[in-house]
Amino acid sequence: MSAFLRDGLSRRSLLKTGAAAAGLGAIGIATGQSVRHAMAGNLTKIKLEWTEVAACHAPIGFALEKGIFQKHGLDVELFYQGASGQTLIQALATRKAEAGPGLLYDWLKPIEQGFDVKLFAGSHGGCQSILTPQDSGIRTLTDLKSKTIGTFDVMSPSRVAFSVSLKKAGLDPERDVTWKVFPFDLVAQAVLRGEADALAHMDPWAYGWEKEHKFHRVADTQTDSFQDRVCCVLGVNGDYYAANQDALKRVAAANLEVHQYTAAHPDEVAQWYFDTLRPGMSVETLTEVLGSFTYHEHWFGDKLRDEVKRGYEDLKLTGVADASTDPEEIASRITIDIFA
């Protein structure tokens, strides 16, 4: 039995074991052998949604393939929810999934409107960027005033995130810039054709385009107001959590283990991502992308609650969250201290 189970998933044992996994290799990975069929007894079934196109979610698929969830007593089925935050919410609302990772800002408005979800773990920071051509003269967020920013959806996660950045830089994200939507994988071409002055997109595409076209990175979700912040967090249906608290602890433990492992071995997860999802770029580039995320940081308990509070404060600035919302109250109400 793993240390996670023996010690009752305490915070101390969890972090200690996660660090050991990062240094020595998780069971079934270091040896190159799957543990899918090695664990005796019944496994708890759970459906997790994930954004299969997003590089930052690659550890979730990797964990399933390498038996990490099963090691923690979980029989996981993944629901491929695509790149839209709205699909994430719909997946949980229609019970196509019970839990899973999503961008923090994608969770907050639906929860404010009454969607019954609890947030229980933060997995990483960074995964989105604003890019411009080198000869554009655009070097800072304030340089984007009166410019057109291309993105892939009218309310893409990148637009929501960088609207916060623009607001904090002194610009009105609705009046001082123009947002224009292009097909997901053609946003960079729109900028190269002069149909937009900048692009706001997610990795690995943003990272790949930055290298391929030698774009200038104006901002990303690890700099300025996003420095040391969480990007993606795990949420769960409120009723599922009420009936399956131990299972959610196991999900959080497995998530921590695989993200610790990814921080130490981005090349292995990148190879899995390349072989399985064929994202259209080299293993070397994918390794660089995964190595750039803050997988070594983790947000639980008070730290996660503070991030949720700051998230609501951010969305109030841009008018996405209601002016009457109390960030402190709602963050305390919807955040679970999963390893308390």
Automatic annotation (TrEMBL):
Domain SsuA/THI5-like: 57-268
Entry EC no(s): 3.6.3.-
SUPFAM superfamilies from the UniProt entry: Periplasmic binding protein-like II (SSF53850)
Domain of life according to the entry: Bacteria
Database matches in InterPro entries: SsuA/THI5, TAT_signal, TAT_signal_bac_arc
Molecular functions per Gene Ontology: ATP binding; hydrolase activity
Keyword line: ATP-binding, Hydrolase, Nucleotide-binding
Pfam families found in the cross-reference section: NMT1
Signal peptide: none
Protein's recorded name: Bicarbonate transport ATP-binding protein CmpC
Organism, scientific name: Pseudogemmobacter humi
